[in-house]
Design brief:
Layout (H helix, E strand, L loop, with lengths): L2 H13 L1 H8 L34 E2 L5 E8 L2 E8 L8 E3 L3 E8 L1 E8 L2 E7 L4 E4 L4 E7 L4 E8 L8 E3 L10
Helix pairs in contact: 1-2
């Protein structure tokens, strides 16, 4: 292998072909493209969307937390929820959905129970956790700030009757 081809091969691995072409000065700038349609074997795609966090809640979850609806696609939905400071949610389980949570504000704990195994975890900004189908769960907030999270629900939330109240780890706060 010549020194030039060796140099080229190493950069191809590190930078990728597109970056190497740009480094080589291929002379052409990207051309803007509008209204591109991609056919990927007849799959249907949801149109892309943008939404800002609503100032007011859209609903109250079965567990008692305030819910602000964000966006959804065919296979899942996203919400922002928060539990007021020093509150304890009702314990629930879901009939058909699973969730992934990402804590964005506050501090607290989440209790989860599944197949006879129970655990309590501390939560604070940066923690993510799952609520698999059939898991019983409950959460509580500590301090002067609400416990807030982004949750992705799969499939999308079907509506009333999804959350079933169960006995939890702690006595829930009264409304």
């Amino acid at each position: 292998m010549t020194p030039l081809s060796n140099w080229f091969s190493k950069r191809l691995v590190v930078f990728g072909a597109g970056a190497l072409l740009a480094l080589a000065g291929c002379g052409e700038k990207p051309k803007p493209v509008e209204n591109v349609t991609v056919n990927l074997g007849g799959r249907q795609f949801t149109e892309f969307s943008t939404k800002y966090l609503p100032a007011q809640r859209d609903a109250v979850a079965p567990d008692g937390s305030d819910v602000r609806l964000l966006l959804g696609v065919k296979e899942g939905g996203m919400i922002h929820f928060e539990l007021a400071p020093n509150r304890i949610s009702k314990a629930v389980t879901h009939r058909t959905v699973e969730e992934i949570w990402y804590i964005v504000a506050g501090r607290g704990q989440v209790w989860r129970k599944q197949n006879g195994h129970a655990a309590v975890v501390d939560v604070y900004p940066g923690v993510s956790l799952t609520i698999p189908l059939g898991t019983q769960f409950q959460f509580r907030s500590f301090g002067s700030e609400p416990l807030a999270a982004i949750a992705v629900t799969m499939p999308p939330w079907p509506g009333d009757g999804e959350g079933i109240i169960v006995k939890g780890e702690w006595e829930p706060s009264q409304p």
